[in-house]
Amino acid sequence: MLLRAVLPPLDPGAARNVQPVVPPPHPLPDRKPKAAVSSSLRRGVPALLLILACLAGCTPATGSGGPHSGASAATGDATGDVRRPRAHAAFDYQLGGPYRPAPDVRVVSRDRTAKPVPGLYNVCYVNAFQTQPGKETVRWWQRHHPELLLRKGGPDGDLVIDEDWDEPLLDISTGSRRAALAEVVGRWIDGCATAGFDAVEPDNLDSYQRSHGLLDADDAAAFARLLAARAHRQGLAIAQKNTTDLVGEHARIGFDFAVTEECGRYQECEQFATAYDNRVFDIEYRAQDLTAACKSWGSSLSLVLRDRDVRPKDESGYVHRHC
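Given the sequence above, the corresponding structure tokens read:
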């Protein structure tokens, strides 16, 4: 059931001092994969909460295998209190709906509204830099957080929309707005940890490329740093999603591994592989691209072929294959 917050709107001038209200949970998966659009537009999920997470069995994990769901199968090594996935582990991408992974799969990415798979390394997908599509979701943001939506020409201007997905961009242009948004998205990240995921995959890192010059890569990196810090506090690793422009910033931001779409097709795998010591989980959407990627990277990266709608296994058109 879709739950709705019945709370007064946030005062636009109070973003520095008032903790934002968390948006209601979604009954459907956050989104479909980015790679269905053209390559030029391609894209590159408090103490009390921590106590509750501990009670749920989701305390920060260690390299020896902690209480997160992937403690046994696909752990690579520990970085501080988080565990990164092992390079070259068999991977499945299940954003269109959860289903039982194949027996050889060790790492799976699911929407934050889905449950993790016991015994596997689970990545939690969060749409972090844009809103969800749909009039009701946009109205919620306009009612509760109007100052956190990116607009053209000032506070009364038109919303800046990702036209391929019909999603308004979130305004990460200032430190105060990034901090307010980090509380909203941060609670989703907390939810990923409480549910038992091992890592988080915040999408739309490259939204600045669709902002008509109102945002830049530095804004994206600054917001991503806040999300990385939140994830790490919850014992979660965090993935860079696409966006080769920010690969060089991965250590400063705090990214632990990469989830990419069509790095084989667009010849981007090497950049991510070098940055992340082969901890790259790539989705290809064309058979010929998987074949080519497997020839070059099949012995080192985690490559999977999925249908563009990332359908569940029982739906017509489902595709899943790896090297």
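The domain at 48-132+170-322 is CATH 3.20.20.70 (TIM Barrel). Try to locate this feature in the token string yourself.
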